[in-house]
UniProtKB/TrEMBL annotation, chain A:
SMART domains: HTH_GNTR. SUPFAM superfamilies: Winged helix' DNA-binding domain. This is GntR family transcriptional regulator. Residues 8-76 form the HTH gntR-type domain. Coiled coil: none annotated. Pfam families: GntR. InterPro entries: Tscrpt_reg_HTH_GntR, WH-like_DNA-bd_sf, WH_DNA-bd_sf. The keyword S-adenosyl-L-methionine does not apply.
UniProtKB/TrEMBL annotation, chain B:
SUPFAM superfamilies: P-loop containing nucleoside triphosphate hydrolases. It comes from Carboxylicivirga marina. InterPro entries: AAA+_ATPase, ABC_transporter-like_ATP-bd, ABC_Transporter_VariousFunc, P-loop_NTPase. The keyword Transport applies. This is ABC transporter ATP-binding protein.
From TrEMBL, chain C:
The chain crosses the membrane at residues 25-43, 55-78, 98-119, 156-176, 188-208, 228-250. Keywords: Membrane, Transmembrane, Transmembrane helix. The keyword Transmembrane applies. It comes from Carboxylicivirga marina. This is ABC transporter permease. It comes from the Bacteria.
């Protein structure tokens, strides 16, 4: 079962979790996403809600509908999602983060090791 | 699929339960029927299934009047009542006896559902616990593939794991031409499952709205301070549970909060006009 | 598909009845067999000689005692609200449900009960004779009994006797469609009330009002011979039987839960 922690609409939450799986590489471009029925039955969520999720994802070019076969992850899906998430991040999360940094008087030097850690991750990935 | 026009009904020697109630539901939805105790949820379901005769008004299911008990209609309706008595036979005898009446009965699906619910096919039905009997009837209902499946308080008596399985089964087993009506007090049990909310009170449908519309038009959230446009609020350990108009984001519908808001007299602009 | 009576669907209904109560049926028939045999054994062991005709009272009383309450408890689903609920929603027409109940509750006993009686009586005869070979027992046989009825009047009356038995069953059967709990007793009380009203009426017009005084014959005395009397009776019985069945049918048709 999926945990509905966020307060977004359920179809939005499911869309987010599919995006998450694409970013994590569990679903690669050109992969077939589970069918509406499978997802509905797995999550215990109404099929129309799942349909709505797919329409939303299709609208954002993250999945595409191949007639009669099902929904497939698009070639550019990971990039598209990253683009969307980045926008969300700078708009919704960063301001809060910066405000916390300010409130707690965290200095750049304190943050540096954390950023370096991120860099190491990147190197490893390469 | 379900059309009700100006339905009035009263039990003998009692004041009218429904007064000119009208309703129109298309095929292929899971409808959550909510209402206070005694609002007439079960009675409405029984009228729809032809178990009671209306005082006046018409009920039309797939073009047929249910009160005529036509077999062509009966074989497309499966009703799981809240209370029922099972005969003293093993499960497979019951299935052998009843399944053939339902032309679309899916034996493979039935076996799968029984497995999911961890029911023993060789057990005597009358010796099962109430929850097990209920799970059996729900499994039979879904396997019947009837166009109209009526579930009266289906999660009453189910243990906690079974409630999740119930949602998964209902969500996964339905075809496009099937309509499910679930009457319940346990809104949390069906919150993710239903397409729309139908609320009856004072003999009328006072609220009839799809979950997706609600999640787009309203925000249901928990906040520490009451926001400006609060439609309804309740105290909560974290602060307030509030209902506000949407700010553009979608929101997970909290049916309990919605129900309380409606009972508190909050008006929704998409409310049905037949409410006085 | 025919919505009034479909033979295929009727077959499913029979199968469903069998799946649900086949075991109970076997149990009930065995109990009847045991009770019949026990009673008839008492009869055979306590008599040194038995003529065929002597079986007849047993035949009539035992079968009546079983058949009448059995008819009075027709439509067993109607005894509780919950079962009525499921029964009404069972995808069969009223005619199909009604016909099956008529067959099981009224007609089938006419074959099943005599058969059991036949077997039980023969078993009882055999056992008694085996126990005491000196006994002179004529075993039970319906055809012998019929052959022994020489009285023509009685022979003419047989159809009307059978019809009258059917009417008794059917009235109790109709009662089962009306009364939810205790249909047997309630129907008997209802019949008792109706019967006493009729008797009281005749008492009033014949005895008290004495409208047939001065040697006038009562209206029912216009029938001249026994044969036409029997025919009148038959006609009356057929009307009564169909009315009872029609009444029961509409009661089932209008059944709802409330």
């Amino acid at each position: 079962m999926m945990e509905f922690k966020s307060n977004k609409g359920i179809f939005q939450q499911i869309a987010d979790s599919i995006c998450e799986r694409i970013l994590l590489g569990e679903l690669a471009p050109e992969d077939k996403v589970q069918s509406v029925r499978q997802l509905a039955s797995q999550l215990g969520v109404n099929q129309n809600t799942i349909m709505r999720t797919f329409l939303e994802l299709q609208h954002s070019n993250i999945v595409e509908n191949r007639r009669g076969i099902g929904y497939f992850v698009t070639k550019d899906a990971p990039d598209t999602i990253r683009e969307m998430r980045k926008e969300e991040f700078t708009k919704d999360i960063l301001p809060g983060f910066l405000q916390q940094v300010k409130l707690l008087r965290i200095t750049k030097t304190e943050l540096e090791p954390l950023f370096n850690q991120l860099k190491e991750n990147e190197d490893e990935n390469k | 699929m379900i059309t009700i026009n100006n339905l009035s009904f009263a039990y003998k020697k009692q004041k009218p339960l429904f007064n000119e109630l009208s309703l129109n539901e298309r095929t292929g939805q899971i409808i959550g029927l909510l209402g206070k105790n005694g609002a007439g949820k079960t009675t409405l379901l029984q009228l729809i299934s032809g178990l009671l005769t209306p005082k006046s008004g018409q009920i039309d299911i797939n073009g047929l009047n249910p009160i005529n008990h036509a077999p062509v209609l009966l074989e497309q309706i499966y009703f799981v009542p809240e209370e029922f008595i099972m005969p003293s036979v093993k499960m497979h005898s019951y299935v052998n006896g009843y399944a053939s009446f339902y032309p679309r009965f899916d034996k493979a699906l039935f076996n799968e559902l029984i497995k999911q619910f961890e029911l023993d096919e060789n057990k005597n039905l009358s010796k099962m616990s109430h929850g097990q009997k209920k799970k059996f009837r729900i499994a039979f209902a879904l396997a019947s593939k009837c166009q109209l499946i009526v579930l009266d308080e289906p999660t009453n008596g189910l243990d906690i794991p079974s409630k999740a399985i119930f949602r998964q089964m209902v969500a996964g087993a339905l075809e496009d031409d099937q309509t499910v009506i679930i009457s319940t007090h346990q809104v949390k049990d069906v919150e993710t499952l239903i397409d729309k909310i139908l609320l009856i009170d004072n003999g009328q449908i006072i609220f009839d709205e799809s979950i997706i519309n609600l999640s787009e038009r309203y925000n249901f959230k928990i906040v520490s301070h009451l926001p400006e446009h609060t439609l309804y609020s309740e105290l909560n350990p974290m602060g307030y549970k509030v209902l506000t108009p949407s700010d553009g984001e979608t929101s997970e519908v909290d049916i309990e909060l919605l129900f309380n808001a409606i009972n508190d007299g909050v008006k929704f602009n998409n409310e049905k006009p037949n409410h006085e | 598909m025919n919505n009034i009576f479909n033979i295929n669907r009727f077959g499913k209904l029979i199968k469903q009845q069998y799946q649900l109560s086949g075991k109970n049926l076997v149990l009930a028939l065995s109990s009847i067999f045991i009770v019949y045999t026990a009673i008839l054994l008492l009869f055979t062991f306590n008599n040194s000689s038995i003529e065929t005709l002597e079986w007849l009272p047993f035949f009539i009383i035992l079968n009546t005692v079983i058949a009448l309450p059995f008819a009075a408890y027709a439509f067993p689903a109607f005894r509780t609200k919950e079962k009525t609920f499921d029964y009404l929603l069972l995808p069969c027409s009223v005619a199909e449900k009604f016909t099956l109940n008529i067959i099981i509750r009224i007609l089938a006993p006419w074959i099943v009960l005599p058969t059991i009686f036949y077997i039980s009586s023969h078993l009882a005869s055999e056992l008694a004779q085996w126990h005491n070979p000196a006994l002179k027992i004529e075993s039970f046989s319906l055809s012998t009994i019929l052959g022994q009825i020489n009285h023509d009047d009685l022979r003419i009356a047989i159809p009307s006797i059978i019809l009258s038995a059917l009417i008794h069953q059917s009235v109790l059967f109709a009662g089962a469609t009306v009364f939810k709990k205790q249909p047997l007793i309630k129907t008997l009380v209802a019949i008792g009330i109706v019967a006493s009203v009729i008797i009281f009426y005749f008492y009033i017009i014949i005895e008290w009002a004495d409208i047939y005084q001065n040697g006038k014959m009562p209206w029912f005395a216009i029938i001249e011979n026994k044969e036409s009397a029997i025919h009148c009776l038959l006609g009356l019985e057929i009307v009564l039987l169909t009315t009872t069945w029609a009444y029961a049918f509409f009661k089932v048709k209008e059944k709802e839960i409330a």
